[in-house]
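Hey there, shall we discuss this one?
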Amino acid sequence: MSAAANGVDVPYPEGLRPFEPLYGGQRLAASLALALAAFMNILDLTIANVSVPTIAGAMGVSPTEGTWIITSYAVSEAIMLPMTGWFAARFGQRRLFLSATFAFTAASFACAMAINFPMLLAARVAQGAVGAAMIPLAQAMLLSIYPPQMRGLAMGIFVMTTVAAPIIGPLAGGWITDHMSWHWIFLVNLPVGTACILFVSALLGGYESPRQKRPVDLTGMVLLAVGVGSLQILLDKGNELDWFGSPVIITLAVVATIALAVFAAWTLTSEHPVVELRLFARRNYAAGVICLLLSVTAFFGANVVVPLWLQTHLGYTSDWAGRTMAFGGMLAVVLGPIIGANIHRVDPRWVATFGLATFSVFAYLSSRFTPDVDFWTLALTRLIMGVGLSCLFLPLTTIYLSGLEGNQTASAAGLANFMRNIGSSFGASIMVSLWDHRTHQYTTELAAHVTHSNPAAMAWLARLKELGMPARQALGYTEHVVISGQAALLATNTVMLTSGMMMIALIVLVWQARPPFGAPVPTNR
């Protein structure tokens, strides 16, 4: 009988060996497979957003109910992400990655084949839960197959996917919705997932990370699931349910607060915690991850509100709004690997500072748009954002992974990606709520100026009358088109300025990190 069968911990099963650097075409193919898997997973967070009305109509539910397509995926993924390190230690990184990718691909097929809404929701829950491990494990294995002097390039490749996917998602979703069936939003994952499984199995089949049979912390898992699940639903549904004016949101807030507080206390005193919260005791990890959380909040806030404004007030289709947003990802794709290959030559704090400042310049310029802004002005301005993002997320990853050993990477990446997801939810919820509130506020303020005592307003109405528009119609046009459009523009400007100020403020946090910086050190323990 084998040692494993007798219950003895076996770090490396027979025939397998620790990860080691690959070279040439083998490393390139493995890098593309791992990056593509992470890209596919992150893409599924955003690609379905623009298709919710179409899917809801096909399933015979309201658009409001249809948003659970997004919420169900986000909640299940958020719950499982922090547990990635625990599962990777128990089953091995490569084995868990392949299992997760296969299950994610199968769940994608189930989504496409769903014949009713409950079936689709169940498939989306499964898709988020099983796919959660793919992103941090892809990151951990990508670092393991590069030599120490090239791990910055590995991080550049990975960060390139995390920046590009949220931007390309709405573009791809809009195009598929306009030109194909919504089923293809999920079916496109099948060939991608299959290719990833085949390449990783062929190229990394002889490698594995150290394994440890830790006790199962059921209490921690339940507390985490309840707390994170409640928080994620609160963020996704807060704006729709009028935040704390809703008993549902209040209940979710209380449950999330209590469950997460108890979870933190339990985990920090547990001998075998399901999530390594002690990582936050490391100065660089805390500074890097908190900065990641807040910068993603600012980024997603701007990335959600702008296409919403384009479609509701400037007459853009989902396809054209997606094309506008896609310009922000172009330079990120090009610059990511270049910056990664050279990140070891410079202080990542300076690179992150440049990225934060550049994003703030983009936000300021975007807050100066006029109601007649054209497509190319919108699109080219987002190229500036692409430069900023390329110089932000990579150095933050370098900072929060610095000083860690290779066997800590999966836990550290899982927890960091969880914070990134929460940041995206915070950004989308809070900034959309701010945009709605400011739009109503500015509409009321502008409408108050349309009075008989205001010469400019009277001159405007007289001009409309000269053009053949009856008085009542002219007033309605002014209130519902001119005032509403101007109010939405002012609200969008407020969101962009808020995002820019958040980024500038984070420069102070970045400089709380201390050298030396560098990728995790491999370990065979």
